Amino acid sequence: MLGWMTTWAVRCGIATYSSHLISNLSRKPIILAANDEEIVSGFGEGEIRCWEKNSSDFSLVLEKINEEKIKKLVIQHHPGQIKFSDLNNLLIDLA
């Protein structure tokens, strides 16, 4: 299963870009979305709000990756959302 960690269904260029990329996939991935913004479009099945911007706590992301049996993860972000040091720690936890 493919996972996609991004902002989602919110007013954000990253969210829009991710949506365009995902719309061209043959199978929709599990969306692991930031949960600290106002939703501006539909939020649907397979879309899980499980991380906060500018937070170093990705424990819920890791939990959802295990629950959903995600084997590959795309992380679509901006350094203003996730600090590179926190992203590095997340990648170490995923390894």
Features:
alpha/beta, 95 residues, four-stranded parallel beta sheet, globular, 20% strand, 4 strands
What number of domains?
1
Q: Kindly report the spatial arrangement of strands forming the biggest sheet.
A: 3-2-1-4
How many helix segments?
Answer: 3
**Shape field:** globular
Helix content: 25-40%
Order of helices and strands: EHEEHEH
SS-derived structural category = alpha/beta
Summed over residues and divided by their number, the pLDDT gives a mean of 91
Radius of gyration: 12 Å
Query: Main beta sheet, described?
Result: 4 strands, parallel
SSE layout and pairings?
Elements: E1 2-6, H1 13-23, E2 30-34, E3 47-51, H2 59-67, E4 72-75, H3 84-94
Parallel strand pairs: 1-2, 1-4, 2-3
Please, could you describe this protein's structure?
The chain has a four-stranded parallel sheet, sandwiched between helices. The protein has helices at residues 13-23, 59-67, 84-94, and strands at 2-6, 30-34, 47-51, 72-75. It has 95 residues and is of the alpha/beta class. Strand 1 (2-6), helix 1 (13-23) and strand 2 (30-34) form a beta-alpha-beta unit. The chain contains three helices and four strands. The two termini are 17 Å apart. It has one domain.
